[in-house]
């Protein structure tokens, strides 16, 4: 298989993962806004656009805020929501920043790696994509959004 075809497939997968992760991050920001300021107003819009959905608050920070709120911790779905958010965050970060192992990759099993810290690698394949989509669908449903 051509290296170009494999790289194009990885680019397509990266785009899908990053795009859907951004959507989940936006929805999480909005859910936090509703928790802190349930009514729609100028103040709630400022909270959302200037704090929760700003460049200063990372996806990790938003997840940490969610995980630190006692109200959410008491919900039956808390553990699954937290696990799904962290799974999406980790995979998004990996596909965005890790490099392709051209020699070890096939179209069905694309290997990406990092040398930051210690050497680590993951294989992107149908099973990983299915798991990612399962977490994404769960979160969209949990937060009340349709695909």
Overview of this protein structure:
The chain has one domain (3-142). The model has no long low-confidence stretch (mean pLDDT 94). The two termini are 33 Å apart. The chain has a 3-stranded antiparallel sheet with strand order 1-2-3. It contains 6 helices and 3 strands; from the N terminus they run H-H-H-H-H-E-E-E-H. It is mostly helical and 147 residues long.
Which stretches of 5+ consecutive residues score pLDDT under 50? none
Give the CA-based shape: elongated
Largest sheet: 3 strands, antiparallel
The strand order across the widest sheet is 1-2-3
Q: What is the alpha-carbon Rg in Å?
A: 17 Å
Instruction: Give the tally of structural domains.
Output: 1
Assembly state here?
Answer: single chain
What string gives the helices and strands in order? Answer: HHHHHEEEH
From the N-terminal CA to the C-terminal CA, the straight-line distance is 33 Å
Overall residue-averaged pLDDT value: 94
Helices, by number, come to 6
Determine the strand fraction and express it as a percent band: 5-15%
The helicity comes to 55-70%
Number of strands: 3
Instruction: Determine the structural class based on helices, strands and strand pairing.
Output: mainly alpha
């Amino acid at each position: 298989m051509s290296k170009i075809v494999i790289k194009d497939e990885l680019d397509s997968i990266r785009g899908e993962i990053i795009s859907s992760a951004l959507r989940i991050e936006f929805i999480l920001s909005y859910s936090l806004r509703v928790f802190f300021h349930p009514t729609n107003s100028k103040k709630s819009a400022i909270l959302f656009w200037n704090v929760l959905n700003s460049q200063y608050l990372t996806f990790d920070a938003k997840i940490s805020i969610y995980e630190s709120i006692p109200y959410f911790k008491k919900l039956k779905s808390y553990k699954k929501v937290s696990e799904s958010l962290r799974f999406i965050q980790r995979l998004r970060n990996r596909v965005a920043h890790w490099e392709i192992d051209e020699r070890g990759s096939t179209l069905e099993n694309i290997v990406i790696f990092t040398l930051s810290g210690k050497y680590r690698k993951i294989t992107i394949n149908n099973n990983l994509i299915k798991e990612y989509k399962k977490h994404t669908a769960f979160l969209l449903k949990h937060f009340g959004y349709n695909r």
